Task: structure prediction
Amino acid sequence: MSEAPKSIQMTAALHAYLVSHGTPPDEIQSALIEETQVLGNVSIMQIAPEQGAFMTFFARILGARRAIEIGTFTGYSALCLARGLADDGELICCDVSEEWTNVGRRYWEKAGVSHKIDLRIAPAIETLAQLPREPIFDLAFIDADKSGYIAYFEALLPLIRKGGVILVDNVLWMGAVVNPAVDDEDTVAIREFNDLVAADSRVECVMLPIADGLTLLRKR
Result:
């Protein structure tokens, strides 16, 4: 393995160039980004635009019809996933906040994807426990409380079809995962999750340096 990484530092100018030379956010997505930013520091929970474009693209090439996400926030990731699903597709969204997801509802309507989205307001682990005990999903996205990542993964895996994929956000945790001086609960939880899935023979694991790190887990 080369000691010199081929990745380069992502400056603001380079990030703007990257977004503009992919599929950039449209008017609806841009408006949702702007409304979320008004919330202040918590807006950091919204996925990056290039990650949203990737998730739409990935859902399409996977041919996904049924998907589920754990953690919806203001609905940007749900919008991106729903756009990538088949016309008769369904996305179950799990979140505990009526306030934040109500923002998303308006934009799902504007984008014409609300008919694909089944929003369930409850702790995600409870929603997962109520689903049929059989592989029903092609695609899943985890982006919620970091201490729950392992539990979400274990609950989701039996529900994913063979060859289906679980996407997991924030796996680089702003670089803290490799900083031994950082040992807060969230950082430790992300490290434990990353170690677990990298060694799990039930899945193929690829970690990509998109935004704050995105892991792809393909069920064998």
Summary: The chain has one domain: 12-219.
